[in-house]
UniProtKB/TrEMBL annotation:
The keyword Membrane applies. Keywords: Membrane, Transmembrane, Transmembrane helix. It comes from Amycolatopsis rhabdoformis. This is Uncharacterized protein. The chain crosses the membrane at residues 31-49, 55-78.
Length: 307
């Protein structure tokens, strides 16, 4: 291999991950926001060079700014390779399931245990972890598990707000639940039965689902409960099951609630609803065995901020 070919290979190996990361950044935050933040940072460098009279700093600013325009143009016109790869992979997964399910019917996967914990920070950001223990599905055809999370805020959910939501899925065997692996998952936005934005996640489990397999799903959702935690509007926290579940537990932790009297919880058909004070936090939980299908249950929280 010639020196030139080897140099191009090295540059390609080093540059491709950088371009992919830049594409992901632009996709999540939007082109204009990323561009404005970069220009602001470079402008600060250029202004500093002007004030201090440092010619090399001004030259550095001009060079980086020029490079920025070149990179931005390349990303804009070259397309998002990383995202196209994701779409292609998702399509292949879905096609494999469609081919298998077209020739055979099967009973949906049923859930032994359904546990969810939602942590709502005082700025409205939310982190949700859902753990599902599954019954066996031993028919040796491709299986998937669908889950979702509904947005109940009154502030409209923008396209950028949707892009900022992160979700991950993991699959573990019944013998060692700590040894979990990342699960292939695809997602789509839809609307819930009560008209709210809903993120549907399809977790692809493969051909073998053992008795006691554990699937863990994690969502990080910025500003999920910002209306509630700023005192603007109350918010619902509920569940509705469309598949067989033997038992479930639902727990919501509200961070840094200063006064119990300012935080009100109203039951909406939940069994065993409990409200607990844990230090600075308020915890609300409920549970049931063999919940009714398509029956909504939960609570409404209302926070009157006095600060």
């Amino acid at each position: 291999m010639s020196a030139g070919a080897e140099l191009r290979k090295v540059l390609s190996q080093r540059g491709a991950p950088l371009i992919a990361d830049l594409e992901e950044l632009v996709f999540r935050h939007g082109y204009l926001r990323v561009f404005a933040a970069t220009v602001a940072s470079l402008g600060s460098v250029g202004l500093l060079g002007e004030v201090l009279g440092l010619a090399w700093l001004q030259t550095t600013f001009a060079s980086i700014a020029g490079g920025l325009f070149v990179i931005a143009s390349a990303i804009s016109f070259a397309g998002t390779h990383k995202l196209r790869t994701r779409v292609k992979h998702s399509e292949e997964l879905l096609h494999s399931y469609a081919d298998a399910l077209a020739v055979r019917t099967r009973k949906p996967i049923s859930v032994q245990e359904w546990k969810q914990e939602v942590t709502v920070e005082d700025n409205g950001d939310a982190f949700c972890r859902r753990v599902l223990v599954l019954h066996e599905a031993g028919d040796r055809i491709p299986r998937y598990l669908s889950v979702n999370l509904v947005y109940y805020g009154t502030t409209p959910l923008s396209e950028r707000g949707r892009r900022l939501v992160e979700c991950k899925a993991f699959h573990a065997g019944p013998e060692d639940v700590d040894q979990r692996t990342r699960a292939n998952a695809t997602s789509i936005w839809s609307t819930s039965s009560n008209g709210k934005p809903k993120l549907d996640l399809y977790i692809h489990l493969g051909n073998v689902v053992q008795e006691g397999d554990v699937v863990t799903v994690e969502w990080t959702w910025p500003k999920y409960s910002v209306d509630l935690m700023t005192g603007a509007e109350p918010e619902a926290f509920d569940v509705l099951f469309t598949k067989d579940v033997s038992k479930f537990e639902h727990r919501v932790i509200f961070r840094n609630v200063k006064h119990d009297s300012s935080f009100v919880v109203r039951n909406q058909g939940a069994q065993g609803l409990r409200r607990i004070r844990q230090g600075k936090d308020v915890v609300v939980e409920f549970s049931a065995a063999n919940p009714k299908m398509s029956h909504r249950m939960g609570f409404i929280a209302d926070y009157s901020r006095d600060d």
